[in-house]
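Entry 14. Ran structure prediction on the chain below.
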Amino acid sequence: MQTSNRLFDDLAKVATGAVTTLSGLKGEIETLIRQQIDKLLVSNDLVAREEFDAVKAVAVEARLQQEALEKRVNVLEAALGKTSRVKKQPKAK
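Output, structure tokens:
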């Protein structure tokens, strides 16, 4: 009876060691894949999603400010008795 318990203990230790090794290997593989993806992005002049979203937010804000300024110019021109020379441009989506 004692030998079977010892056998199961040894098998459990081997299984635990294998799981630990595989989890370490998984981490290394993820790191290597991440490095390769970063190299690919840099070599193809691509940007990360976070950078793209940041620039997009800046562009949206600039567009909103431009539209607000256009409205102010139209109001000021109307107050001066002039017709607006700025034509309404269709919004790009």
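The first helix runs from residue 2 to 43. Will compare against last week's run tomorrow.
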